[in-house]
């Protein structure tokens, strides 16, 4: 008879690991366990029990057969497999499912044979409507997963206050197993249902993947990880909720559930948990819910982020439950990742989110519960953050052993290990992850505050903003005045596209709220309490000073710009408390910088909750907000592109779906580094304005072409595999001080130190590669560019870091350290480690000397040291000398012919050696942090190296952009007087590939300059290319001032004709000839769109953008107006269009293009020398029954077009012929009537009155609602004037 099964670790084998996790949320009622003598059914396979317990089988034929062995003393059955048969002893070797072996005489044991089908199956249980799914399980996978689970996954949970009734948990498992057999009759109809659902299912993605299966297999599937699967037969009610089992990942392709199926799955889970939540968590109901201060929803200062927990509910909780609810009740707006052993667990309402968003499987039990292993943390936290959730990371800061020690030493009564909040992760605070690595675009966290001023000021409001890219430690801060429409703020939002917003609660104006809604893409919004959380300037300065005083005492925290070119980052050791220069300037500005400092305060408070404030400021790159506001444009070095221009010209996002395909950025982005791509975005958003800066960049790009092209291509090739060094360095800098999840007290099971070391080595290799690549460009020939000389000169643009890199190169073996996960420093690198090594060598030398002394004492040179097990330096003495051994020698062991001793001196040396080795290991563990600290001391040089590399990458990208362009190009001539002239102007984005069979038609255009009108009035047929021409001119202007260099397609021919052709100036604008004077700002108004969420109709949106143009344009601006006035009646629209055109031509006197279908405007301006009439040419022929058919020529032609030929577009769109004939007839009638109406008084002019209206509009104050009311009044007055004429 088999002996009783032994228990492990003092715990009954019935208490499986999954039961421990589940019982975390179960109040302890009883510790007794009952056993059932009944053999249980098989729960996790569709095999059947043989009704004959002792079949007549040959001993050799039952090898590898499965069976169950009954243990009478345990009153339980255990699963096993027959591994072999010993003929001599007549016994079989049995391997139990926990890998324990035993020899049994099966004829004397009570057994049950298991006859398996072709495959072993595991069925997914369903609650009310969940469909079953069969998946094949590989026996080896099960064994491997169970073994891994039992070995280490929950080793540290033994001291938790689970407070659960294990008997109930096991009974539920047994019930599930029994139900599996009882439901055999349902299999056929379930399989039919599976086929139907399977058509809708794709491969399921699991947040835990294989790990999820291990959890289920070890907990629910096998009742006990690594111990015998003892099963009772006490069945619980069938109506109890059945956990959904995670599927295995081997031998089978598992289908991913479709969105419809997922909804059914989650809805079913919520339905099952709903009754329990309504009863036990009744205080969450909307009518009874209260915050921590017991305020109800609707009360003043109600805080939905907190929750009041009733005392009776708290009393019903176990220690573990109470700990979880203490965290959750203070952070109801966040999803808790609650660390338990090697897993992060999600409970209650968070479990529903985990199941829905991460495809995690619910665990068994009445409480909602799911989780995933530690190694999947980065992936899952990024998934939730990207979807807009706030994730609160609660880590263990104590092991069960430390808990037990604390209990003994301090008499603590705690039953659960300590846990602390270590991170808050959101869209704007992500610093690593797969999706972040794949997307080089910055993820800005933007804080905005506002102050409205009196009407005596030039602007209605002043904004303070602070934008932070946490992944690169970049902080952009500034304060600016803005108009009533928040135009400057809209421009900033359109450029940065922040993923997260921070604002003071109830302080921003309605217009500001609308602007933030209109020009962002579903950001996460955080409201902070003014003053208390969104700090004012005084509180902010105090907090920043405190942080900098602490970090500046540490060597690695020296000024961000102790060495470098960006003086804005230097710090001053003066009365301002070592603040960065940017902050000193804002502080010195008084009221003109207080809002910016307040915005920084709101940002720091928010980041402080995420444990990122000190980490960020320690190595922050402060930048002043460039070109803030629209005042003083002439003094700013950049062209301004407002929100409308960025969107209408599709600089970064296309209008179709919002991604970058088909945009100017996509056309020009040939950078090979992620940080180069980010710099290119900055250059495109802020093209140069000053002539000398434009020419400097032109020379730099030209120097990278021609004879130097091969060097440029080698540079790109060398950097093609470079990681995102800007973000990588930021992570290295942040890891220099233990904080958050990296704190020393946090209990992590993954090898975090190895990952940190690999990133450090990657950073070193990346810096070495950048130095080599930049040095290779130092041999450029015939380079006249001062910018290139500066970038490539060591000690100027290129930091002198060769000696620093050599230090780290000589410090340790990079390859060996990367593979082994630990650093063995070379001698002389680390004094602490060297000292420890010398101490170990000294003691070992003393032991060697002691051995020589003993040999001499005992008179035998064969005496030596041996190691047996853990005992080192055992003195092995021949048996013949035993009588000569002194009495104070300690006999430790012996073998035939020898005795082994420790002498008193050896014991003393061993104690010293153990201590020395411990000190050596400690020094070895700390060597990485010390090396990172040394690396961070020169952080300003590493960043300067990245900046130089990024600039070279962008310049080369611009230089080779011509490979992706069709047609001739030229280097633009920069002139002084306002003009814009182009011959053979092409399109920088449209190519023959994107246009199908056709090719783009280039055009000649001249705006301004001697003898030319400053404005073009453009008419032409619908779809004739008017809007394209407007965009084309604006994009060419941007290219000229960004300095994009295109390679002539005919260059390959020139090389064969003239070997010196590469010395010709390179080109950067798609035209045969291009001249312009710098444009300070481009205004673009085109397309019909509304902002319903902001309360703006299509026409109001159109006029709001026009009002901004009228108030902000200067003689150096470029205006592009496309079909202004089409959102209202013909008379009103035409009157407004003519008035606006009159204002630009005679008052502003800027360059511009005005396309329209109001043909009367062409008649009115045909004799105006300041306006040129042009149209997009076309050929008109007769179609069916007199309908006109138009052939578009897309050629810009002098003169006005007589018609718009809208009926032709209706024909192209496929309107019925009857409708087309009627439309053509009515069109002719309207034209005839319009001509008769205009015959008399056609010389009458409206512009004078319109200009008067415009003056009134521009002169009025623009307080809230003024703009809209003024436009409405203007419309009414225009209508009256038109009726009089």
From TrEMBL:
Biased composition, class Polar residues, residue ranges: 1-31
Ranges for domain DNA mismatch repair protein MutS core: 659-993
A GO CC term attached to the entry: nucleus
Record InterPro entries: DNA_mismatch_repair_MutS-lik_N, DNA_mismatch_repair_MutS/MSH, DNA_mismatch_repair_MutS_C, DNA_mismatch_repair_MutS_clamp, DNA_mismatch_repair_MutS_core, DNA_mismatch_repair_MutS_N, DNA_mismatch_repair_MutS_sf, DNA_mmatch_repair_MutS_con_dom
Chain positions covered by the region annotation Disordered: 1-61, 147-229
DNA mismatch repair proteins mutS family domain boundaries: 1013-1228
Coiled-coil region list: 833-860
PANTHER family: DNA MISMATCH REPAIR PROTEIN MSH6, DNA MISMATCH REPAIR PROTEIN MUTS FAMILY MEMBER
Protein name per Swiss-Prot or TrEMBL: DNA mismatch repair protein
Native species: Hibiscus syriacus
């Amino acid at each position: 008879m088999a002996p009783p099964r032994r228990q492990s670790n003092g715990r009954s084998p019935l208490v499986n690991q999954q039961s421990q996790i589940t019982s975390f949320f179960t109040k302890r009622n009883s510790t007794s366990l009952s056993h059932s003598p009944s053999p249980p059914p098989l729960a996790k396979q569709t095999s059947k029990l043989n009704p004959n317990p002792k079949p007549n089988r040959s001993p050799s034929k039952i090898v590898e057969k499965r069976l169950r062995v009954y243990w009478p003393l345990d009153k339980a059955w255990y699963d096993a497999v027959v591994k072999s048969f010993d003929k001599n002893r007549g016994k079989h070797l049995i391997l139990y499912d926990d890998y324990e072996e035993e020899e049994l005489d099966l004829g004397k044991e009570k057994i049950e044979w298991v006859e398996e089908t072709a495959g072993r199956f595991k069925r997914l249980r369903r609650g009310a409507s969940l469909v079953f799914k069969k998946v094949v399980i590989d026996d080896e996978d099960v064994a491997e997963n169970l073994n891994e689970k039992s070995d280490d996954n929950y080793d540290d949970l033994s001291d938790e206050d689970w407070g659960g009734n294990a008997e109930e948990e096991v009974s539920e498992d047994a019930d599930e197993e029994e139900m599996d057999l009882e439901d055999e009759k349902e299999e056929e109809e379930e399989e039919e249902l599976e086929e139907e659902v399977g058509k809708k299912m794709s491969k399921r993605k699991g947040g835990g993947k294989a790990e999820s299966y291990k959890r289920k297999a070890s907990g629910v599937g096998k009742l006990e990880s690594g111990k015998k699967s003892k099963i009772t037969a006490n069945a619980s009610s069938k109506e109890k909720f059945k956990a959904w089992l995670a599927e295995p990942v081997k031998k089978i392709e598992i289908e991913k559930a479709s969105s419809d199926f997922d909804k059914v799955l989650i809805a079913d889970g919520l339905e099952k948990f709903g009754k329990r939540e309504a009863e036990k968590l009744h205080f969450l109901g909307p009518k009874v819910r209260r915050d921590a201060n017991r305020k109800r929803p609707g009360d003043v200062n109600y805080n939905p982020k907190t929750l009041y927990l009733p005392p009776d509910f708290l009393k019903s909780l176990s220690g573990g439950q109470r700990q979880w609810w203490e965290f959750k009740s203070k952070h109801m707006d966040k999803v808790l990742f609650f660390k338990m052993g090697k897993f992060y667990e999600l409970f209650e309402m968070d479990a529903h989110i985990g199941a829905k968003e991460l495809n995690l499987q619910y665990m068994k039990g009445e409480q909602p519960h799911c989780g995933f292993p530690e190694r999947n943390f980065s992936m899952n936290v990024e998934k939730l953050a990207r979807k807009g959730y706030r994730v609160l990371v609660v880590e263990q800061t104590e092991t069960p052993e430390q808990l037990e020690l604390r209990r003994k030493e301090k008499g603590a009564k705690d039953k659960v290990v300590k846990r602390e909040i270590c991170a808050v992760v959101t869209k704007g605070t992500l610093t690593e992850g797969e999706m972040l690595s794949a997307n080089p675009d910055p993820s800005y966290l933007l804080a905005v505050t506002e102050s409205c001023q009196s009407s005596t000021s030039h602007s209605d409001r002043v904004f303070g903003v602070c934008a932070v890219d946490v992944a690169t430690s970049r902080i952009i801060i500034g304060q600016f005045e803005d108009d009533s429409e928040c135009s400057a703020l809209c421009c900033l939002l359109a450029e940065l596209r922040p993923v997260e917003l921070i604002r003071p609660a109830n302080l921003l104006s309605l217009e500001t709220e609308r602007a933030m809604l209109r020009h962002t893409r579903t950001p996460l919004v955080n409201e902070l309490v003014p003053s208390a959380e969104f700090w004012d300037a005084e509180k902010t300065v105090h907090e920043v000073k405190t942080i900098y005083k602490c970090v500046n005492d540490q060597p690695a925290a020296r000024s961000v710009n102790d060495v470098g070119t960006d003086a804005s980052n230097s710090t001053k050791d003066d009365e301002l408390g070592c603040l960065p220069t940017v902050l000193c300037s804002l502080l010195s500005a008084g009221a003109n910088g207080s809002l910016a400092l307040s915005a920084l305060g709101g940002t720091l408070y928010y980041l402080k909750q995420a444990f990122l404030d000190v980490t960020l400021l320690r190595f922050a790159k402060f930048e002043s907000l460039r070109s803030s506001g629209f005042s003083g444009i002439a003094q700013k070095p950049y062209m301004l592109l407002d929100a409308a221009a960025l969107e209408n010209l599709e600089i970064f996002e296309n209008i179709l779906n919002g991604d970058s395909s088909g945009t100017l950025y996509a056309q020009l982005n040939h950078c090979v580094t992620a940080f180069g791509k980010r710099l290119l975005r900055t250059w495109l958003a802020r093209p140069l304005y000053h002539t000398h800066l434009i020419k400097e960049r032109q020379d730099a790009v030209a120097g990278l072409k021609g004879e130097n092209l091969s060097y440029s291509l080698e540079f790109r090739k060398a950097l093609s595999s470079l990681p995102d060094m800007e973000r990588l360095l930021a992570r290295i800098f942040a890891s220099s001080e233990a904080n958050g999840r990296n704190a020393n007290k946090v209990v992590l099971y993954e090898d975090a130190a190895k990952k940190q070391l690999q990133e450090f080595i990657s950073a070193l290799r990346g810096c070495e590669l950048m130095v080599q690549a930049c040095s290779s460009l130092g041999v450029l020939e015939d380079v006249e560019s001062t910018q290139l000389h500066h970038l490539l000169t060591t000690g100027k643009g290129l930091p002198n870091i060769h000696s620093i890199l050599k230090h780290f190169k000589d410090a340790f073996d990079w390859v060996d350290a990367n593979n082994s996960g630990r650093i063995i420093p070379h001698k002389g690198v680390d004094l602490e480690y060297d000292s420890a090594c010398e101490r170990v060598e000294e003691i070992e030398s003393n032991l060697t000397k002691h051995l020589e002394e003993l040999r001499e004492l005992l008179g035998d040179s064969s005496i030596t040291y041996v190691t047996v097990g853990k005992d080192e330096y055992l003195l092995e003495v021949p048996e013949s000398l035993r009588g000569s051994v002194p009495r104070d020698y300690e006999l430790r062991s012996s073998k035939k012919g020898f005795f082994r001793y420790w002498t008193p001196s050896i014991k003393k040396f061993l104690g010293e050696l153990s201590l020395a080795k411990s000190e050596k290991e400690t020094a070895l563990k700390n060597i990485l942090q010390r090396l990172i600290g040394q690396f961070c001391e020169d952080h300003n040089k590493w960043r300067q190296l990245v900046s130089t590399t990024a600039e070279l990458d962008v310049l080369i990208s611009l230089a080779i952009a011509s490979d992706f362009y069709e047609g001739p190009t030229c280097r633009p001539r920069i002139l002084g007087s306002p003009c814009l002239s182009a011959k053979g102007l092409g399109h920088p984005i449209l190519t023959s590939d994107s246009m199908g069979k056709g090719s783009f038609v280039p055009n000649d255009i001249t705006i301004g300059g001697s003898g030319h009108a400053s404005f073009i009035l453009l008419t032409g047929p619908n779809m004739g290319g008017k809007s394209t021409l407007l965009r084309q001119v604006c994009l060419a202007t941007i290219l000229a001032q960004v300095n994009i260099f295109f390679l002539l397609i005919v260059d390959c021919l020139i090389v064969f004709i003239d070997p010196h052709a590469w010395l010709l100036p390179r080109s950067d604008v798609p035209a045969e000839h291009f001249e312009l004077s710098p444009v300070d700002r481009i205004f673009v108004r085109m397309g019909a769109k509304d902002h319903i969420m902001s309360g703006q109709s299509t026409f109001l949106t159109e006029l709001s953008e026009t009002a901004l143009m009228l108030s902000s344009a200067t003689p150096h601006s470029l205006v592009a107006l496309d079909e202004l006035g089409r959102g209202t009646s013909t008379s009103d629209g035409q009157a407004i269009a003519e008035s606006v055109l009159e204002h630009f031509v005679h008052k502003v006197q800027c360059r511009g293009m005005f396309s329209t279908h109001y043909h009367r405007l062409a008649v009115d301006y045909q004799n105006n020398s300041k306006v040129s009439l042009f149209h997009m040419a076309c050929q008109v022929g007769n179609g069916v029954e007199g309908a006109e058919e138009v052939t578009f020529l897309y050629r810009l032609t002098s003169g006005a077009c007589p018609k718009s030929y809208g009926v032709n577009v209706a024909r192209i769109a496929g309107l019925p012929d009857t409708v087309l004939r009627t439309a053509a007839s009515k069109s002719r009638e309207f034209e005839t009537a319009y001509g008769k109406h205009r015959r008399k008084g056609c010389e009458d002019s409206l512009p004078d009155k319109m200009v008067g209206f415009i003056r009134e509009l521009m002169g009025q104050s623009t307080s809230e609602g003024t703009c809209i009311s003024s436009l409405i009044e203007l419309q009414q007055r225009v209508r009256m004037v038109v009726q009089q004429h």
